[in-house]
Task: inverse folding
């Protein structure tokens, strides 16, 4: 039977590889719009999660000193808390960015820049420190790490429960509100365009049937928003273990399974990008095409030198831009 430590290491390896794949595609993406920097930051955070969570199983497998092992696991656990909070804040930044681009498109285009996005990322780094450092100082002693079983769950006091809600579900709730606003804008825009089209068809053909309009609206809205809904849903589900207290008698196996739930959000992004991010897919197709068309000694050089034109109309997985 495969040991749980090896299962965790395999999942960590998948996280690292998938995010390395994302970063590779983003690297060869020329003429990136500013919002793409947020997706790069998101991929970096997911890759760091894979690296940090690999520390605990490695410590348990390798014959380390007991005191050093416990300290290393505790440090890895605290680093994981920080990176998870930072990941959630970057996800919130993406949602805010996409909401602004839809709600105020003209002003957004005029004022947004890569410098401002970098400043926003720096602000999330500082905010994550503010949210996590007090808890790390106050509750460091109540975290018990072992080399042969999962990290013990600390007692959730009222203050710590409030902190957990603010650092996770509250932020995800704001993300959900922003996504709901994007859905409302999408529905309003598509309905207006369908009505305009219906009037034009009605003028040309008084016997025209517009019963398919509602179905078309649903299909258009769903196709443009399902990526955002997938990301938000995965974020909400992965945040549940942070706020739901588990009884002391919880089975170690069940505890491991619950703790692995957040790993899903750090592995699935390449699939979402490929399915619902046209410009990401175009970059990957162009890279692969150049690699297969050129001689082997020119492959790398050809890919690097290939200009990739920015598509201003492209949408990100957390972007919904009415079209």
Result:
């Amino acid at each position: 039977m495969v040991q749980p430590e090896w299962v965790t290491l395999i999942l960590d390896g998948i996280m690292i590889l998938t995010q390395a794949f994302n970063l590779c595609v983003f690297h060869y993406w020329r003429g990136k719009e500013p919002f793409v920097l947020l997706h790069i930051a998101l991929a970096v955070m997911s890759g760091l999660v894979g690296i940090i969570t690999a520390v605990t199983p490695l410590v348990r497998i390798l014959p380390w000193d007991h005191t050093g092992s416990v300290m290393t696991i505790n440090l890895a656990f605290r680093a994981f808390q920080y990176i998870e909070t930072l990941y959630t804040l970057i996800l919130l930044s993406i949602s805010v960015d996409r909401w602004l681009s839809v709600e105020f498109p003209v002003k957004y285009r005029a004022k947004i820049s890569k410098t401002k996005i970098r400043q926003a990322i720096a602000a999330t780094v500082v905010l994550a420190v503010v949210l996590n450092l007090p808890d790390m100082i106050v509750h460091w002693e109540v975290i018990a790490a072992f080399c042969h079983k999962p990290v013990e769950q600390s007692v959730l006091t009222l203050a710590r429960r409030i902190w957990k809600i603010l650092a996770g579900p509250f932020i995800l709730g704001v993300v959900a509100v922003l996504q709901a606003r994007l859905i409302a804008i999408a529905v309003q825009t598509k309905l207006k365009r369908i009505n305009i089209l219906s009037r034009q068809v009605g003028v040309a053909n008084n016997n025209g049937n517009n019963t398919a309009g509602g179905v078309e609206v649903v299909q258009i809205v769903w196709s443009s928003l399902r990526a955002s809904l997938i990301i938000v849903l995965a974020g909400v589900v992965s945040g549940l273990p942070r706020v739901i207290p588990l009884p002391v008698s919880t089975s170690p196996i069940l505890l491991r399974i619950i703790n692995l739930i957040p790993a899903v959000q750090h592995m699935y992004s390449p699939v979402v990008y490929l399915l619902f991010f046209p410009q990401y897919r175009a970059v990957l197709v162009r890279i692969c095409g150049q690699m297969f068309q050129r001689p082997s000694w020119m492959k790398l050089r050809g890919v690097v030198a290939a200009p990739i034109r920015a598509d201003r109309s492209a949408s990100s997985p957390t972007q919904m831009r009415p079209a």
